[in-house]
Amino acid sequence: MRFLKKIFTWWDGATIGTALYSARKGRFVAEDGAGNRYYESKKGPRRRWVIYAGGNDASNVPAEWHGWLHQTVEDIPDQSLPPARVWEAPYTPNLTGTGGAYRPAGALEKGRNRARASGDYEAWSPS
Which pLDDT band holds residue 6 (cuts at 50, 70, 90)? Predict the structure, then answer.
């Protein structure tokens, strides 16, 4: 069943065609902390691509690897960048549309209850 899923679904990871292309024409470069695997073409015009660890979502690619994929940076980010600073937050993908998305206190999903603010609207009523 998993084999059929790989043949017919493109939105849930790499298809069989992409995996075969990567093995045949690509050179494995590195793997990031999220498990995404990065490839570069062996010969011909230089192409770079990623095989996502989970579903195909471009927000799963960290900024440094995004620069490498678009050939803005030549060196492999894991080898050329300095270590992360203590104050830097770890990379997180975009969570919009998922259960982990930010919901403020007045959101529909949070029960529509929020503290009253000084700038709240008060309707005019004639005296």
Answer: low
